[in-house]
Large ribosomal subunit protein uL4 (Robertkochia marina), 209 residues
Amino acid sequence: MEVAVLDKNGKETGRKVSLSDSVFGIEPSDHAVYLDVKQYLANQRQGTHKAKERAEIAGSTRKIKKQKGTGTARAGSIKSPVFKGGGRIFGPRPKDYTQKLTKGLKKLARRSALSAKAKDNQIMVVEDFNFESPKTKDFASVLKALGLEGKKSLFVLGDANKNVYLSSRNLKASEVVTPSELNTYKIVNAKSVVFFEGSLEGIVSNLSK
């Protein structure tokens, strides 16, 4: 599959790059994508949620009323879950939500996500560029030139580029990552994936193994 290389002004450079069929042209595995996205979201959970149970509530241990003769249900402790301020029944406890997947499955998921994007013509390639200094306005102009203004987009750098990264941080709909930060969730979550020309070789090399 060949894709035209654009400059940061959205104009064709006259060059084309061939996207590897082993990464951008496979039959997508929806289940692999599902498992990888589920793992990513699960691993974002801190698991620090905690509610106090009956034994952890501070309060008197005396019997709050006599056993019989009140006309109401018997009650022994103010810390009982049936009273306001009492302990919570089966409350949440700290838990590790971390999940693990094999490297092969994670690579299959990323190839599947990229192939789905390529099939839907949601992949663009731009020649490598930089800004003289970090300016949100400069990155916004690139988005407008590429027709991505206000749309969820993911830019994949060839190498770490501080000025481009900092210029994008104030724009919530766009994200800039390096190849090592690229994952299935970010690919699926973006409406369009924009690769810097210098990033393709490393991505294909890593995902083809």
